[in-house]
Specification:
This protein is an alpha/beta fold and 379 residues long. The protein has two domains: 26 residues; 292 residues, Ribonuclease Z/Hydroxyacylglutathione hydrolase-like (Metallo-beta-lactamase, Chain A, 4-Layer Sandwich), CATH 3.60.15.10. The strands form three sheets. It has a seven-stranded mixed beta sheet. Strands 9-10-11-12-13-14 form a six-stranded mixed beta sheet, with helices on one face. A two-stranded antiparallel sheet has the order 1-2.
Length: 379
C-alpha cells in the first residue's frame, strides 16, 4: 500500500500553513510602507519657493565654515562595523525605566520647568503652565517597515493614552527616528493640540490624516504663538528624507518659550555656527535638550558628538543640559554607553550642569536629580 506517512503529511500541512501565515503577515506589514514615505511637497508651493533655504527643488543647510552642506556617507569600514561589531552597541541588561509622574499643574509646585524624557529624542516639556511634546516616536522600530530596521532597546515607559493633554506637538525633521506615522495617527485621536513642523512636513501629516487646522509649518526663524507659548523654528545642520528623495522637507531645532521660561531642543544637528547665533537671539535657556549619540566620523557634519554637544550648549547659554538621542536605538557603531560617558567627562571639565534621567524619568530643572551612573552596569 502506497502513500505518505500521516505524521509527515500533517507536518507538511502545518509548515505550509505557517508559511502562508508568515507571508500574510509580511504583506500586511508591508502594505503601509508607501504611506510611511509620506507625501513629497509641491515644489511650486510659494512658501517653499520663497524660503532662503530652498533652491533647485531641495532645502540646503546654511553656509558654514565648520560643516559641509552635504551629509557624509558611510565608508566601507563604517559599514563593516555597523554590520559585524555589535557586541558593545546594546545594553547588557534591561534598561531601567521610570514611571512618569506628571502632575496636574505643569512645571510642578514651583511653576518652573520640567522635562520627562521617554527615550531617544521624545520628551514632554513643561514650562509656565504649558506642555509640549517633542519628536514623539512610540513604534518598536524607526523604519518604514515593521519587519526590519532599528528596533527599540527598551520599551516605551508610558503609553500614549496615558499622557496628559498637551498644547503643541513639535517635530524637528522627517527621519523615522523623529517622525513616526503610527504615533502621529494615534495622537490625532488622543490629543487636540496642533503639530508645529518645518516647511514641507505638512504633506506627510496630511497624508496620515492630520486635519489642516492642526498643522503649522514654519521656516527657520519663524514663530507661532499658541496661548502663552511662543514656538520658534531655529536652524540646524542636518538633512531630511523618508525615501531615496532627500531634502525635500526642511529640518530644524526649536525654541520653546513661555512668558518667563525657555527651553531649547536640538532635534538632530551637527556642530555649526548657528548655535552661537541662536544663543545670542533667544538665550539664555532654563534647559537644553542636546543630542549626543549616533555620531561617527563618516557623518560628523550632521550629528553632534558629546564634546560638541557641550560646546554648543555653552554657546546657546543652555542652563541645565539634558542629553537626548541615545540609549533607545542602535544607529551608529559606537558603544551603547559611550555618548553619556564622554558627555559626563566633558560637562565636568567645562562646569556644565547635567542631568541624565532614565527613560520615563521626570526632571525638575530647578532641582535636578544627582548623577547616579545607572547606565554603568549595562555598558
Amino acid at each position: 500500500m502506497s502513500g505518505a506517512h500521516p505524521g509527515r503529511t500533517g507536518r507538511r500541512r502545518l509548515a505550509a500553513l505557517a508559511a502562508l501565515a508568515l507571508a500574510g503577515a509580511a504583506v500586511w506589514a508591508l502594505r503601509e510602507v508607501p504611506a510611511q514615505f509620506g507625501r513629497r511637497p509641491d515644489g511650486s508651493d510659494p512658501r517653499l519657493r520663497s524660503s532662503p533655504q530652498y533652491r533647485d527643488g531641495v532645502f540646503h543647510n546654511a553656509p558654514s565654515e565648520v560643516a559641509h552642506d552635504a551629509p557624509g556617507r558611510p565608508d566601507a569600514g563604517t559599514l563593516r562595523r555597523m554590520l559585524f561589531e555589535k557586541e558593545s552597541r546594546v545594553p547588557t541588561a534591561p534598561v531601567p525605566l521610570a514611571v512618569p509622574e506628571v502632575p496636574e499643574v505643569s512645571g510642578g509646585a514651583s511653576g518652573g520647568v520640567a522635562v520627562t524624557w521617554f527615550g531617544h529624542a521624545s520628551a514632554l516639556l513643561e514650562l509656565d503652565g504649558c506642555r509640549v511634546l517633542v519628536d514623539p516616536v512610540w513604534s518598536d522600530r524607526c523604519s518604514p517597515s515593521r519587519l526590519a530596521g532599528p528596533k527599540r532597546l527598551h520599551p516605551v515607559p508610558v503609553e500614549l493614552a496615558e499622557l496628559p493633554q498637551v498644547d503643541a506637538v513639535l517635530i524637528s525633521h522627517d527621519h523615522y527616528d523623529h517622525l513616526d506615522m503610527a504615533t502621529v495617527r494615534r495622537l490625532v485621536e488622543l490629543q487636540s493640540a496642533p503639530f508645529a513642523v518645518p516647511l514641507g512636513i505638512g504633506g506627510h501629516l496630511r497624508r496620515w490624516g492630520v486635519p489642516e487646522h492642526r498643522i503649522i509649518e514654519l521656516d527657520w526663524d519663524e514663530t507661532c504663538t499658541l496661548g502663552e507659548l511662543t514656538l520658534t523654528l531655529t536652524a540646524a545642520h542636518h538633512f531630511s528624507g523618508r525615501s531615496l528623495a532627500r531634502n525635500t522637507t526642511l529640518w530644524g531645532s526649536w525654541v520653546v518659550a513661555g512668558p518667563e521660561r525657555k527651553v531649547f531642543f536640538t532635534g538632530d544637528s551637527g556642530y555649526f555656527e548657528g548655535f552661537a547665533r541662536i544663543g545670542e537671539q533667544h538665550g539664555p535657556f532654563d534647559a537644553a535638550l542636546m543630542a549626543i549619540g549616533a555620531y561617527d566620523a563618516a557623518w560628523a557634519d550632521i550629528h553632534l558628538n558629546p564634546e560638541e554637544a557641550v560646546r554648543a550648549h555653552l554657546e546657546l547659554r543652555g542652563g541645565l543640559l539634558l542629553p537626548i538621542h541615545w540609549c533607545t536605538f542602535n544607529l551608529a557603531p559606537h558603544p551603547w554607553a559611550e555618548p553619556v560617558e564622554r558627555l559626563l567627562a566633558e560637562a565636568k571639565a567645562q562646569g556644565v550642569p547635567l542631568a541624565v534621567p532614565r527613560p520615563g524619568q521626570r526632571v525638575e530643572v530647578a532641582n535636578p536629580p544627582e548623577l547616579d551612573g545607572w547606565w554603568e552596569a549595562l555598558a
